[in-house]
Amino acid sequence: MRVLLVESDAVSGGNVRDLLRAGGHAVNWYRRLSDVTLLGEQAHDVMLVALQLPDGSGLDWVDARRRNGDATPVLMLSDHCQPVDLWQPTDSSAEAREVLERVLAAIRHALAQEPSADRRMRTYGHIELDPPSRRAFVRGSAVRLTEREWEVLAALTENPGRLVAKRDLDALVGGPAEPASSNVIEVHVSSLRRKLGRSFIETVRGLGYRICI
Fold first, then answer.
1. Which of 4, 10, 96, 190 could form a disulfide with 47 if both were Cys (CB 3.0 to 4.6 A apart)?
2. What one-character DSSP code corresponds to residue 119?
């Protein structure tokens, strides 16, 4: 199996590369998205791509490749090469699924050798949050959040059940440039409810918001 690995962290990337090579797989490892252009038309069975890289978003890079017709199976990685999202090829072939399962098994084995605290996700009922990658999962499915949505969510989940005043959230995501009458927080909370579930965030009228778990 030929694997493309795009990961800037020397330790994590090196560990995954060595593990896969020890299993008999060919690995091309690059630290930056721009370096991948050196591959030309070389084909891979699977790609392992970090969510954030020094020269851009791995998620956006994969999106662009998908739009250009690249159906290679992709495994997105957060910090410490933790698998966070799967991108199935358009045909969802049995062969492609087998490739992904083999890679996942290898990554899980590598993770088992690392301290569990580095991999711990925050769980709130059926919702999981991965702070390093700033991503949320609802019943195991990845949910894409904007930067401001994550900031609001992080503030609310820091102490589940605790009321967070609206003015504090306004200051967090708006700053002095936002007018006093701005409804920016209402917009972000509404979007979070749509993505995570309406009952997850409770409005305390006239005061603020809190997480319900």
1. 4
2. G
* Residue 95, token pair as written in the block: 């062969």
Q: Are residues 107 and 156 in the same domain?
A: no
CA distance 180 to 71: 47
φ, ψ of residue 85 in degrees (nearest 5): -160, 145
Q: What confidence tens digit (pLDDT) does each residue in 28-85 have?
A: 888 888 888 765 556 787 888 888 888 888 888 888 888 888 877 788 777 545 544 4
Separation CA 50–CA 8 (nearest Å): 8
Q: Are residues 11 and 105 in the same domain?
A: yes
Do 150 and 191 sit in the same domain of this protein? yes
- Burial class of residue 125 in the structure, from the number of CB atoms within 10 Å of its CB (0-12 exposed, 13-18 middle, 19+ buried): middle
Measured in degrees and rounded to the nearest 5, phi and psi for residue 70 equal -80, 115
Q: How confident is the model at residue 138 (pLDDT cuts 50, 70, 90)?
A: confident
The C-alpha torsion from 14 through 19 and 23 to 25, rounded to 10°, is -30
Residues 17 and 112 in one domain: yes
pLDDT at 24 over 50: yes
10 and 86, same domain (yes or no):
yes
Q: Does the pLDDT value for residue 91 go beyond 50? A: no
How much of the chain, in percent, has pLDDT values that exceed 90?
6
For the entire predicted model, the pTM comes to: 0.45
Pairing of strands 2-6, 26-30: parallel
Identify the CA nearest to 182 among candidates 198, 166, 193, 195: 166
Domain boundary among 102, 117, 132: 117
Q: Which domain holds residue 11?
A: 2-117
